[in-house]
Specification:
mainly alpha, SEC-C motif domain protein, two-stranded antiparallel ribbon, 168 residues, 2 strands, SEC_C_motif
């Protein structure tokens, strides 16, 4: 299996593992993920780069877990997303990220333990964080289109009245 396939099955590798054990595995990973983000946000001027294996060792993760971390930060990277499907421990990564995009993506992941890190208070002003939250919330608001009247032309383009076409 590739690292990416192993990551997609992370925590589910043991068939006899109980739900409680699975939760512990995931919580353990999330704690280490939070630690990596804390380091990155505390040292934003440092661009972290190296192989998956090297960086995993540096941040107390195995190769699969660090690939998972890269998968999580991937859409926030300035140099574009990596195609992680064929990555190995020797694959090189450069973790130079856009702060605002990263904050947005943490909101989107509903990762309060990440967007609530204290480092954000010095990196983005309260106004900037609120603006990002506002913009994020706008993308999650469903706006209904204009209601079609029964006697209006059908929006499907048939030329019939709505009540004689799609409104039946």
């Amino acid at each position: 299996m590739t690292l990416f396939e192993l990551w997609n099955n992370y925590g589910e590798d043991a068939k006899e593992r109980s739900v409680e054990e699975y939760k512990k595995v995931v919580e353990n990973y999330l704690g280490r993920e939070r630690d990596v983000y804390s380091h990155l946000l505390s040292n934003v001027e440092e661009v972290v780069e190296g192989t998956i294996a090297e960086l995993g060792k540096r941040f107390n993760m195995n190769e699969v877990e660090f690939l998972g971390f890269v998968d999580g930060i991937n859409t926030s990277l300035k140099n574009g997303e990596y195609d992680l499907t064929d990555f190995t421990g020797e694959s090189a990564v450069r973790l130079e990220f856009d702060l605002k995009k990263l904050y947005w993506n943490m909101l989107d992941a509903k990762a309060e333990w990440l967007y609530g890190l204290p480092q954000w208070n010095t990196l983005l002003t309260a106004e900037e964080r609120e603006e990002i939250k506002r913009e994020y919330n706008k993308t999650k608001t469903v706006v209904r289109g204009k209601k079609v009247g029964r006697n209006e032309p059908c929006p499907c383009g048939s030329g019939k009245k709505y009540k004689q076409c799609c409104g039946k």
